[in-house]
Design a protein that fits this description.
Layout: E1 2-6, E2 12-16, H1 23-29, E3 49-52, H2 57-60, H3 65-74, E4 82-84, E5 98-101
Parallel strand pairs: 1-5
Antiparallel strand pairs: 1-2, 3-4, 3-5
The structure holds FE2/S2 (inorganic) cluster (FES).
FE2/S2 (inorganic) cluster binds near residues 24, 38, 39, 48 and 86.
Amino acid sequence: PRITFIEPDGTVRLVDAEPHESAMQAAKRNGVDGIIGECGGSCICATCHCHVDEAWLDRVGPAGDIEADLLEFEAADVRPESRLACQIQITEALDGLVLHVAGRSR
Ligand code: FES
């Protein structure tokens, strides 16, 4: 599946993701700017924060409880469409997904 990341400065990055990896892993493997993934996908660092493109919100779904708490306490610029990329599992159904990498400044 192909995912589009929009980096914080507006740069568009097309990434070929493997099914069953997370969006964070796909971003890291391809050097997407702004996705740090410090905790390795354990949902404790919030350095993989993205805003899901509006057109994809339904298909990606909302953040889980632990994820939502982490976003609330650790992330900047949190919006209803905020997700942690490490908690988005890539499937064929997400081919074409667009994620906007969130900025780090509060
Ligand atoms: Fe740490 Fe996603 S990589 S919360």
